[in-house]
Amino acid sequence: MHVLVRGICRYFCRFLLFYWICFTFPFPLDLVALPLQFVEPKDQPAWMKAADDAFGEGYLWVNREKEDACKWVGEKVFHVEVIIQPTGSGDSMRAYVGCFCAAVSAAAAALLWTVLALFVSWWKLGWRADAFLYGLVRILVRFFLAQMLFSYGFHKVFPLQFPQPSSFRLNEQLGDMSPMGLLWTFMGFSTPYQMFTGAVEVLGGLLLVTRRTTLLGAFVTMAAMAQVFILNMCFDVPVKLYSLHYLVMALYLAAPDMPRLIKVLLLGRAVEARPFALLLENVWIDRTALVLRTLLVAGMLYGQIHGAYHLWSEMYGGPQPPVLGRWEVVSMRVDNKEPHKDDPMIWKSLDFMNKTLVRLSGPTPPNVVYRVAWNPEEKKLTLTKFSTPTWSATFTYDLPQSDALELKGSMDGKVIEAMLKPLPEKSYELKNRGFHWIQELPYNR
Tell me: the pLDDT tens digits for 28-81? Predict the structure, then answer.
């Protein structure tokens, strides 16, 4: 009985290790292209551009194969439709079916590994298969988590994830907000708080990339991911599945040191120092790995900082767009005639949130956020959808007066002409209240 229990525990541990491999795949393949990012695409020589294109095609092929496998499993096993589209949701049917596929693959791999381990023990080859697998997966999880933390963290350090409340949000009734909209408004209101939460995530990632600080990094990551997971659960943010995985990954990294921590923190007992052995017991291999690790982390940091700063500059830096804020539709014509009030093409208002985002409000759907690209020379703006990057709508714009905006163009095969006026600027208590060190009474309105 004791042997059976030990065997089951070992199999479960192997299953967990292989699950992390399957869940994170195709990572770390995406790290191969890190050196290419140090040269801007326009400055890349022909051989570098060819290598970049070849890697991109190969990486896309791997992802397409994963998506096709998920679609097949969804249809044949669960009898559901797995839709492949960029939605920004981590709780899609694709994500759940993908986790199921990873679990099935891990179960099969753990079984094969168990047979391999038995073979090794019978022939006494002297290879510690489980120790090798554990060490490999631990490195994989550390750097995967670090990459995720850098990505999410720098998109908060450069305040991108939660924009400042737009005119649409400030005029929207609290009861009409979705739970996720309320959270985005709360986080976007305070840029310093958003930057602080991002800095904590970046700190967790930095601590995870070295062996000596991995335990501290795991605890910082647990704190950050616990908050993210609870917020996702309580405000119905569709990243519940992935944030739970990241939290469990941090727990996995901290688990081997928990007995030592319990002895020190709860029982008040001394523990021996844990030495860090040389990699493969070879000093030169260990030093080479240290250099490669440093270069890898430098590439990861450069990529995230450069990408986040570039996106922030596109959204907020440089010259401002011709119009900002919320504009109300005064008149509109669709295919050269006045639309009916229930026409799905009719607009109510356009809220230009920043240089690259605009929210279109209408009866159906009530509001949709588009990307917007400005061409001041030709007086044109182009709208694109997040979910359908190939979709676009182009309009010419004119500002005959400071309080008038005229748009002419086409959308979804319909010719559209619209005249808009800016909504009067309001004084919002939320934006004007400011910060106070001393308050005799709570100002809770």
Answer: 888 888 887 887 877 788 888 888 888 888 888 999 999 999 999 999 999 999
The contacts found for 261-264 with CB under 8 angstroms, 24 or more apart, are: none
For the chain, the maximum distance between any two Cα atoms, rounded to a whole number of angstroms, is 87
* Structural contact between residues 217 and 201, judged by C-beta atoms closer than 8 angstroms: no
Q: Copy the structure tokens of residue 111.
A: 């079984």
Domain shared by 375 and 286, yes or no: no
Do strands 325-334 and 349-352 pair parallel, antiparallel, or not at all (unpaired)?
antiparallel
pLDDT band, residue 126 (cuts 50/70/90): low
In this structure, is residue 430 part of a structural domain?
A: no
Burial label for 212, CB within 10 Å (0-12, 13-18, 19+), is: exposed
Residue 198 has which token pair?
A: 């991002």
Alpha-carbon gap, residue 445 to 430, rounded angstroms: 10
**Token match 């995967």: residue?**
144
One-letter identity of residue 360: L
314-325 mean pLDDT:
87
Helices and strands, number each (H, E), in the chain: 12, 8
Q: Answer whether residue 187 is part of any domain.
A: yes
Question: Exposure string (b/e) for 408-437, b if CB count within 10 Å is 16 or more?
Answer: ebebeeeebebbbebeeeeeeeeeeeeeee
Residue with tokens 């060490």: 135
Residue 112: domain span? 1-127
C-alpha–C-alpha distance, residues 88 and 155, integer Å: 14
**DSSP for residue 417:** E
pLDDT of 7: 75
- Looking at 127, 160, 185, the residue that finishes a domain is 127
Residues 120 and 65 in one domain: yes
Provide the residue type at 405 as one letter: L
Q: Write the CATH number for 387.
A: 2.40.128.270
Amino acid at 4: L
Q: Tens digit of pLDDT for each residue in 403-436?
A: 899 999 999 888 999 999 998 878 888 888 888 8
Q: Give the three-class secondary structure for 383.
A: strand
- Strands (E) in 293-364, as ranges, are 325-334, 349-352, 357-361
DSSP 78: I
CA 323, CA 310: separation in Å to the nearest integer? Answer: 22
Residues 209 and 299 placed together within one structural domain of the fold? yes
